[in-house]
Amino acid sequence: MGMMLGKITVETPKYQTIEKKEEFEIREYEPSVVAEVTYDPKEMKRGRDGGFMILAGYIGALGSPCNKKKGTEAAGEKIAMTAPVITQEQSQAGGSEKIAMTAPVITEEKQEEGGEKTLVTMQFVLPSKYTTVEAAPAPTDERVKIKGVPSKKMGVITFSGNADDKLTAEQLEKLKTALHAAGYKISGEHILARYNPPWTPWFLKTNEVMLPVE
């Protein structure tokens, strides 16, 4: 993902820091454009992260990209790879163009009515050069959708290590407690941002848990 030994050297989502405290930050993120895929993790070899290969195919990270420039069959430009992987979990009743891998990849889990099946939506945030949905190359894989995401205010806590379920839950609870104490109202589900590839040593990994706030 364009990083060596834990150092982040690629494009990440743009934001302004509104407030910075010892425990957390409040950030205002700029609007973005994302590519997303929704799937049943039980049907994917990589489970919850199974959509990664589909989206990597769309941007051309593994070879010929599965996309086309709108209105033409001409080959598109190759774009430098960017980085993090972001996971969001939410439980509820012409021609190809290589696109930069971005920060973040977002995964959202939704439980279908009846609670029998959980669907996951994973997103890649596209590079900032794609300012509108219309500007992004069209996917040739019908499972991939392109959509715009408006600006958002987020409470963020940063931590290191392997962001497994246990550590993420601990950091999420810590963030919730700090936000409530500071008088912020949480307005949605959390996002997990993982800024390093899996082969990075655990002590060099940078992660963030984010919560939308008002």
From TrEMBL:
<dbReference type="InterPro" id="IPR011256">
    <property type="entry name" value="Reg_factor_effector_dom_sf"/>
</dbReference>
<dbReference type="Pfam" id="PF04832">
    <property type="entry name" value="SOUL"/>
</dbReference>
<dbReference type="InterPro" id="IPR006917">
    <property type="entry name" value="SOUL_heme-bd"/>
</dbReference>
<protein>
    <recommendedName>
        <fullName>SOUL heme-binding protein</fullName>
    </recommendedName>
</protein>
<comment type="similarity">
    <text>Belongs to the HEBP family.</text>
</comment>
